[in-house]
# Entry
Amino acid sequence: MTTTLLNCEVILSKQIGDYWEGTTTSASGAITIVDTALIRFPDDWITDVSYDMVTSGSRSEEERKISHANSSVSTGTLSVGTHGGSIASGVTYRVHRLFEASEKRRALITAAKNIFPECYDMVWDESLVTGNWLYDGSFEIWDSAGTALSNWVANTVTVTKTTTNGLFKHGLTSAKLSTAAGTLSQGYTENDDLKFLAGKTVRFSVQGHCDTADCLRLVVSDGTTDSFSSYHDGGTAWTENNLPLEVIATIDYNPTEVTFKIVHEVTAATSYVDDARVISDYRGRLYIGHLGIHQNRPYRVEVEPENYSNQEPWIGIHDWEVDEDGYIYFTTQLRSDYRLRIVGPAILDFLSSGTSSESWSATINLNSPQTEILAAEAAVYLYTWMSMPNFESGTREDYQQMLAYWEDKARKKKGKYGMPILPITISWGHE
# Structure
């Protein structure tokens, strides 16, 4: 159900009558496009604001202003700004006569946000666990490059984001440990709340597997004492749901550190870890600001009826509230060590590898007919800018008429194709 930014641009161009695609019929230099299909157009077909965009070959995605067209008996050419190199034969290209491709891209990215709440993405997250003191125990939050965890520190060992089916157990990702012996840890620096565990007994558990025995285990350190779990036996099967790697430890009353470490001890081995949990005294708040839910206001919050349950329905939670920092608080004490399901709408965006992107290959979680809404809203954006005072009054009036047309068009498409409107207030929770 996704559509690329480039395909959305095609939809927009066709809606506003600004679509022409051709294929070069002869090779040319960097300042010329040759296509016999251009013969049928008069030379003044090219406007003062026409641009090309190459869509295949070594110059793909390059945009240049078109200075003029030349239609002869045998061939047709476009004179363009200098591309990064020669244009080969058989290369596809497009001509943008009203708005350049980059303007349409900017309009579509803006429109993706402006069509909320008629169109939205739905967050359905089951990565959080009641009572878990760790941030991101499911290893879901990585840097924009996807090469480092945001709430965990890798020491020597190489940590890799893993999204392959069968290689994660909780949420949508796991952490792969390989290449060198080392640790993956979370302490005060990554999670200041861990200081409240001083003097407490904690249970640190992780689901995982390692292809080598006597390699993967857990450590709890308070600066004075290190408490170890047993090693994983070795193999490619995940630990059982009710038999994770586990260590129980009592933290010193005045610890110099509180650190939870996943230890990978064999250089040549490969480990996969997921669903890290630290359970102790009741923890009544969890951070949900990273989920991307609009204004951090979920639509529904539920807890699983039993550990790793596959049964439906889950149990609805009625008493909760969200603060301005993105923490959800449960006003009624819940059982610890159970997965939460948090559901809520998110503003749409174009994404590449899970992060916001302006690449033409980035995708948005929309398909036809909702892409018609996106294109209409993008047209509103384009004609709004063209109606600004930096254009001549006569031209501006024409664009204002087009703006009114597309505003009406967008309104009708939202009414016809828009998604079900979710309640503005939070279901059961308190603001």
Observations:
- The radius of gyration is 28 Å.
- The helical segments are 5-15, 101-114, 370-386, 393-417.
- Residues 106-120+349-417 form one domain.
- The mean pLDDT is 93.
